[in-house]
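Annex B. Sample input.
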Amino acid sequence: MAFRTPPFPVPSSGGLPAQGVRRRALLGLAPALGLLSAVPARARAAGMSDASPAPLGRPLVLSGPPATVSYPLVHMADSGALADLAPETRFQLWQNPDQLRAWAVRDGADFMAMPSNVAANLYNQGVPLSLLNVSTWGMLWLVTRDESRRTLADFRGQEIAMPFRADMPDILFGLLATRLGLDPKRDFSLRYVPTPFDAIQLLLTRRADHALLPEPAVSMVLRKSESFPVSVVAPTLYRGVDLSQAWGDILGREPRIPQAGIAAVGPLRTDARLVDRVRWAHADSLAWCLAHPRECGELVARHIPMLTPEAVADSIAQARERVVDAREARPELDYFFNCLLDGQPALVGGRLPDDGFYA
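Annex B, continued. Sample output.
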């Protein structure tokens, strides 16, 4: 998948303004949760011993998709976690991978949640970008009307609604199917749709029996299919295959995929103290989201209107969210990228990213 710049302008403003509430330091919850690693020691050391980063004279823009990887970014903006660094912190939603790429190229945001392979592809194409961390280690499920289908092989010969052609859902499905000896194009009928929400509509209106969805779209469609009046028409739906578990089973690895994280984009990526402050605040906010799923659901739904509080809370219960410094995650990232290089090298820009990719 070659890099391309979509022909539409990048918004110069918009998003979520920060409130004047001081952030809460919640890393002490992490060991009890068992889901969040400590913030890298070098980030903590920088925050404690170095002078604070110089305040920006403009808003700080955080950006992400309507998915679990964005929850901490919304909380960072809403809580005022970075209020001493910028007069305003905004969360700006990107709704599809083309929009993500355009904003990354045109400085549409300062820190962006993005799929790890997209980050590598952009970096290898010369976009000024550094990966801070990997925080999402799997959030894709095959949702199905047939409870008996529990493995990828069980879906052979079936039509599957697939959002984001040639991006993360499609990439991982194809990689795992191929490792099983299946041909993704011949052994399945993949019905490509623009977004997960289009796939949800196909499921609810019985125009599709199966769909590959990320969280919280999975939790949304399961709740909608059980709620009146939709439940009168919608089929009963099930979580069929957890792609993270399939990754572990098929490849003989731990059931976790270095799927997405936070990248610094543009000129601010060279400000080490600011980058570490953002890294630290992101870990704090993720800890808060994991510890407060109901409150996080209400917060996220206020600022990403297509999501519901209940679905966000449900998705947190299923989350494989854990902050790992990009350098520490490099062995798993390299394994994933090498898998892609074996089959579709353009997905990561034709080569492994070098040291400069890792913040």
